[in-house]
Amino acid sequence: MKTKKRKTKNDRVIPGFGLSLGITLTILSFVVLIPLATLVIFTAGMSFPEVIKTITKPRVLASFEVSFLTAFIASVINTVMGIILAWVLVRYDFPFKRLMDGMIELPFALPTAVAGISLTALTSNNGLVGSFFAKFGIKLAYTRVGITIALVFIGIPFVVRTVQPVLEKLDPSYEEAAGVMGADRFTIFCRVIFPEIWPAAITGFGLAVGRCIGEYGSVVFIAGNQPFETEIAPLIIMSKLQEYDYASATAIALAMLIFSFLILFLVSFFQARNSAMIQGRR
Amino acid sequence: MTEKNESKYVKYLLITISVIFLFFFLVLPLFVVVTEAFKKGVDQYLQAVTDEYTVKAALLTIEATFFAVFINTIFGVFAAWSITKFRFKGKKILTTLIDLPVTVSPIIAGLIYVLTFGRQSILYPLLEKYDIKVVFAVPGIVLATIFVTFPFVSRELIPVLESQGTDEEEAAALMGANGRTIFWKVTFPHIKWAFLYGVVLCATRAMGEFGAVSVLSGHLRGKTNTLPLHVEILFNEFQYMPAFAVSSVLVVMAIILLIIRSVIEYKGKKEEE
């Protein structure tokens, strides 16, 4: 069969196309396509007004607000810190730099539940950090601030890892040229460096927001899960599932899915710009 | 002269900001896990770690991780091979579908599987006939773990294979080598490090998955409880010390995998040069 293909199609000299695509599609069907199709079938059985009614309940709307707001703030913090971290890791030399570079990956590697309970212990009123803030009457754990802290932790690697390769490709001679022509450091950053890295930073920001909105493990422990105050959207889906209310769970999930795809679409737009920028510099 | 001084000042300021940020967000949480785990002494720690349910949870975590790595590696290699070495219609859709699982919230991933294999599913009568339990059982946990780590191997392989092109494989094919020989002799040496990197990445995430597994597990101790879920149960029962003791095991595993990963990355880069 393989040889037949080789004879009939000139552009496919390498054997094994049928076999490898076959295996790929089989596994893809079982893991992704069939479950996804079930979601579509299940959704088709629901009435549209019913879906709207479910997702516009005050408690659900409040959970969207909590999820979006905290994800947005955490990602803004991570974008600023991510640019600084990427800059430090690419441009400066200092002891333990490689350790620091490796540490950035920790939020990817550490199980979210572990991150969740340890951040909770850290920021609760008798925790190491929490007790300090408690003196001034500021509560961290079990508030929206706590959720944001957990999401900052989760989102650290995204912006760093998208901005880093762009900075590595950026030729310092442009900055030198600008410096020679009399530009100060601030102008150089705004006019020379920033235009190069912003698509990467936005890409990282988008990826971080996408991840943070869906995040569950690290947030449930620190959130306190008060309806209207600190209840996140994934938690509402979880509790609907526990009540076997699959229709409501699916409706809320759909709203979240649409939003994540929107972000993904925007991200891929910036990513295309970004990779053109990296490749153009080669 | 002044330019340089100012630059140095900025340098130390930025490094200090970075170090403080990472200290509070990454180092302190790890420190808390260790101190809380050993709060009541080494004996209590060992007791918590070797507890019957902890060991059972660890075994289930290893099982799920093994299957996730196994399936996703096979998938990753074949998917990367077909995407980069051949031209066909719908390639873009295929890559999007492969990446889809990581962009979906883990809770939604779990929900999708509940809808597919749960009681209201069209597949349910069929599953019941053959007495196969997926939801609230081990197969569900394994499936959820496979789903959330689905693209990790293929994602690492595709860029490497893409940049390498198809010339070498075509040459080998024209000289009469069969598919298997081409893969092992021509392609694999190029992707060896990317392959290992993807496998380690997949194992790391599989081991720590919480949300999706949480939806599909019935939280039955000793039966459908993975290590991260066990941490949750202990923590919610206010058994803080044991919760952190179990967490410390996961932290150690995560750090070991992280180190292996940097070694692989380093060796791969060195070989490239």
Keywords, separated by commas or semicolons:
heterodimer; A: 282 residues; MetI-like fold; 2 domains; 79% helix; globular; B: MetI-like fold; 13 helices; 81% helix
Describe the structure.
The complex is a heterodimer of chains A (282) and B (273). Chain A is an all-alpha fold and 282 residues long. Chain A folds into 2 domains: 1-45, no CATH class; 48-280, MetI-like fold (Orthogonal Bundle). Chain A is 79% helix and 0% strand. Chain A has helices spanning 2-8, 17-44, 48-55, 58-91, 97-103, 106-109, 112-123, 130-134, 144-169, 172-180, 185-214, 217-223, 233-242, 246-280. In chain A, α7 packs across α9, α9 (144-169) runs antiparallel to α12 and α13 (233-242) runs antiparallel to α14. The two termini of chain A are 42 Å apart. Chain B has 2 domains: 1-37; 40-272, MetI-like fold. The model of chain B has no long low-confidence stretch (mean pLDDT 88). With 273 residues, chain B is mostly helical. The interface between A and B is large, with 82 and 97 residues.
